[in-house]
Amino acid sequence: MKKKILDKQELGKIIEEISENLFSYFNGKFEEICVIGIKNRGDIIAKRIIEKLEKKGKFKILFGAIDITLYRDDLSSIGPKPLVGTTEIDFQIDGKTVLLVDDVLFTGRTIRAAIDEIIDFGRPKRIFLLVLIDRGGRELPICPDFVGKRIDCEEGENVAVCIDEIDGEEGVYILNNRKDL
């Protein structure tokens, strides 16, 4: 069963609010900040946020995208030939403040893998975590700095963020089974 909890307009409003909060938090100063999105939806959400920030502040923000497949702690259980995407970081991150963006925060394992990968590219000054949805259920001590929306889920439920660029629709759903989408 699939239950829609956010529609396209609500999703857009949350991204707008996050962008406003970021602009205020960083006082409109993004010279030493780079935004890195976790593929396959965190990178698109990051681009949308960057677009709003750049429009508001009339500046350019460094953007990168990472695929954390090879950094997963369950890589051996995925199968013999995991599908590995590309990582695109074409700038120095040493000394920079990184804003790491993902769609859903659950156990914290994806974020741990992303931080490991980022550190392989250099030593950032600081890493902030921004998630569109925090659904609770942490297995690791990972806490987001910026959250679009917190959602309570029952054990066994999944949260799916759908975006036009990948799914052909926009919204956030609670699923009883990943196959429900």
Automatic annotation (TrEMBL):
Q: Does the keyword Transferase apply?
A: yes
> So which residues are the signal peptide here?
none
What EC numbers are recorded for this enzyme?
2.4.2.9
Gene Ontology biological process terms, A to Z: regulation of DNA-templated transcription
Q: Name one GO molecular function term.
A: uracil phosphoribosyltransferase activity
Q: Which domain of life is it from?
A: Bacteria
InterPro entries, per the entry: PRTase-like, PRTase_dom, PyrR, PyrR_bifunctional
Top EC group? transferase
Domain Phosphoribosyltransferase stretches: 3-147
> Coiled-coil region(s) at which residues?
none
What is catalysed by this protein?
A: UMP + diphosphate = 5-phospho-alpha-D-ribose 1-diphosphate + uracil
Report the CDD domains cross-referenced here. Answer: PRTases_typeI (cd06223)
Report the residue ranges where the short sequence motif PRPP-binding is annotated in this entry: 98-110
Bilayer-crossing residues are: none
> Keywords in UniProt for this one?
Glycosyltransferase, Transcription, Transcription regulation, Transferase
A Pfam family the protein falls into:
Pribosyltran
Tell me which family the UniProt entry assigns to this protein: Belongs to the purine/pyrimidine phosphoribosyltransferase family. PyrR subfamily.
Quote the function comment for this protein. Also displays a weak uracil phosphoribosyltransferase activity which is not physiologically significant. Regulates the transcription of the pyrimidine nucleotide (pyr) operon in response to exogenous pyrimidines.
Q: What is this protein's record name?
A: Bifunctional protein PyrR
